[in-house]
Design goal:
- By secondary structure, the chain is an alpha+beta fold.
- It has three helices and seven strands; from the N terminus they run E-H-E-E-E-H-E-E-E-H.
- Strands 1, 2, 3, 4 and 5 form a five-stranded antiparallel beta sheet that branches. The chain has a two-stranded antiparallel ribbon with strand order 6-7.
- The longest helix has 14 residues.
- The chain starts with a strand and ends in a 6-residue tail after the last helix.
Amino acid sequence: MTRAAIALGSNLDDPEAHVKRGFDDIAALPQTRLLARSKLYRTRPMGYADQPDFINACALVETSLAPRTLLNELLAIEKRHGRERTIPNGPRTLDLDIVLYGNERIVEPGLVIPHPRAHEREFVLKPLHDVWPGALA
């Protein structure tokens, strides 16, 4: 089993409910155990600013899913929540990102771990600290 951190974010269609259901969906993943849920944080959008504030959080899991398989499972959860990718950094019903996967460093098309901008984003760092203090230190 590998410890992994997954960032959650939403700013459409009752964002708090999407994030809370996102935690439940992550907990239901095969070969995965949810260890901790961060508090929920309200944050202003970055990049594309003409959109509602976000609700952000972080889940800590132990999983035996390979990183690519975990990513595919998270993308399927996003799809079930109605995620559409129309505007880069735009509004979304649910966004799930693998921030960390153990100590692994992965650079593949569509998959970079640790998340390349996590250390610059307070909306990732604060919830991550709730569930895995010192993880990006």
